[in-house]
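Researcher: Quick test of sequence recovery. Tokens follow.
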């Protein structure tokens, strides 16, 4: 009987480890922090197409607090000083939506394919989320 229980426990352990790290994290978060805030973006990527040097492009990323407690945006960081952000509000109540507007103005050395990364840090269970702006800068 003890061998059967041991085998069952080992089998469950290997099944849990078979999940990707993200899946395991979601399960862990649901079990240990079911009421925590959660930031859920409508989309985390914006492709701006072709952009002529000297022009700017902006996009607003929308998100919802799908958790059960207030979501606090602690920081929004960009990958270079060619990208700026505007945060609509820092505290989003459960069920409410928020917006982060990202403005990209290419520098003279930024030609061809570009990928700009924006890091959103919050008190959510998914503390760090990445946003992307991609496209092609023409001379």
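Model:
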């Amino acid at each position: 009987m003890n061998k059967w229980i041991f085998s069952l426990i080992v089998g469950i352990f290997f099944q849990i480890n078979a999940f990707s790290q993200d899946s395991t994290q979601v399960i862990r978060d649901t079990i240990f922090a079911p009421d925590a805030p959660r930031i859920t973006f409508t989309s985390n990527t914006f492709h701006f197409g072709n952009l002529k040097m000297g022009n700017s492009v902006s996009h607003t990323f929308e998100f919802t607090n799908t958790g059960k407690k207030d979501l606090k945006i602690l920081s929004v960081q960009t990958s270079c000083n060619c990208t700026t952000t505007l945060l609509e509000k820092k505290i989003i109540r459960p069920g409410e939506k928020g917006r982060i507007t990202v403005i990209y103005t290419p520098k003279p050395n930024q030609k061809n394919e570009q990928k700009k990364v924006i890091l959103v840090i919050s008190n959510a269970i998914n503390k760090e989320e990445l946003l992307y702006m991609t496209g092609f800068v023409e001379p």
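The helical segments are 2-18, 21-32.
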